[in-house]
Amino acid sequence: MKRLVLVGGGHAHLSVLRALAQKKTPGVEVTLVTPSTHQNYSGMLPGWMAGHYVQAQCRIDLLSLAQTARVHMAVDRIAGIDADQHCVRLPDGRRLEYDLLSLDIGSEIDLSWLEMAGNKLLPVKPLDDFFVAWPKILACAREQPGYRLVVVGGGAAGVELALAARYAFSRANIQGRVELVVSESGLLAGHAAGVQGRIKHFLARAGVFVHRQRAVGVEEGVMLSDGTLLPADCVIAATGARAPLLLKFSKLMLDENGYIAVNGFHRSLSHPNVFAAGDVCARQDVAMVRSGVHAVRAGPVLAANLLATLMGTPLVTYQPRQRSLYLLACGPQYGVASWGGFSAEGKWIWRWKDRIDRRFIQRFSAP
Ligand SMILES: Cc1cc2nc3c(=O)[nH]c(=O)nc-3n(C[C@H](O)[C@H](O)[C@H](O)COP(=O)(O)OP(=O)(O)OC[C@H]3O[C@@H](n4cnc5c(N)ncnc54)[C@H](O)[C@@H]3O)c2cc1C
């Protein structure tokens, strides 16, 4: 019996589970280790905050996918990896040994600048915790006129969360203030000027105050680099990604930022019986940004390569496209599209995003 262990129920592993459901793998015992029986979908989180979806529409039932694929599910979070000993460690000290390991555990939110905000701080990840916390924030804001919410992060997630929060406040007649801190690298760095301009305009129209400075967490909220204090009742952190800390001691080869170094097959450069896809890895042959788009697209390649490794057949390469399409939700059912130098906005962008997101969930739902 060969043991394949999948860690994390992220975007790429959804395709692996689907491939395992479609193809019988005699002589292979597969285990999925993931902290929850459901995977919440980040793409629909802003729409859920804004009130366009209920949570059940934004999540994938991992347990049912695993059962269909004849995969044993361990509802747990791994605490460590020892790639030399071919095992992962669970928090209670148990070891799970593998012949082949696949990692899709995503990235963590870098909170190093904001930690001092203490219990006011709400990182957007883990998404499971965020889904529990947001309704409580709305309830608090309803009770407390003048509620102050600060979102930190100038990337797509920060922008979408700030606009979704602003819209949710307006819908619930909450007299609150929403501010977005985007640091010195600015709003939507890496996107075209047209996209940045449209979003800037939309934030102003929606009444979201934008600060282009670095924020440091303080007891009262956040302090900007020019010394301005932004008092806050809640600070949502959608700051940059950082590699999961547990990788440090994994003995896997990591890149300079601590992510798993992989080749075009998404195979570890140091341990050929370890594969990784999604935010947790760093391709060493091509530049690839961390995004759900690549995590999803690499999924079928990861699935093919895990099966090929088990059967001793040739591996295939994941070829990332030069440009990815981003459809940003703007609070109401309105969106901004970003694709290389091209940008567009309108209700039709929201409808397009909504169709893509619903189809994604549908693809991984039980028949
Ligand atoms: C609000 C928001 C909106 C976004 N919108 C978009 C978008 O529109 N388009 C886009 O391309 N990207 C978007 N992103 C980025 C996107 O969410 C990530 O790039 C994507 O989720 C990465 O997928 P992944 O499979 O690597 O990891 P994830 O989707 O984060 O999945 C990781 C999985 O691993 C599990 N896990 C974590 N640690 C452990 C552990 N120790 N043991 C076991 N399991 C573990 C987690 O519970 C989770 O199930 C958005 C992000 C946010 C926060």
Automatic annotation (TrEMBL):
Residues 3-286 form the FAD/NAD(P)-binding domain. One of its GO terms (biological process) is aerobic electron transport chain. Keywords: FAD, Flavoprotein, Oxidoreductase. One of its GO terms (molecular function) is NAD(P)H dehydrogenase (quinone) activity. Its cofactor is FAD. It comes from the Bacteria. This is Pyridine nucleotide-disulfide oxidoreductase family protein.
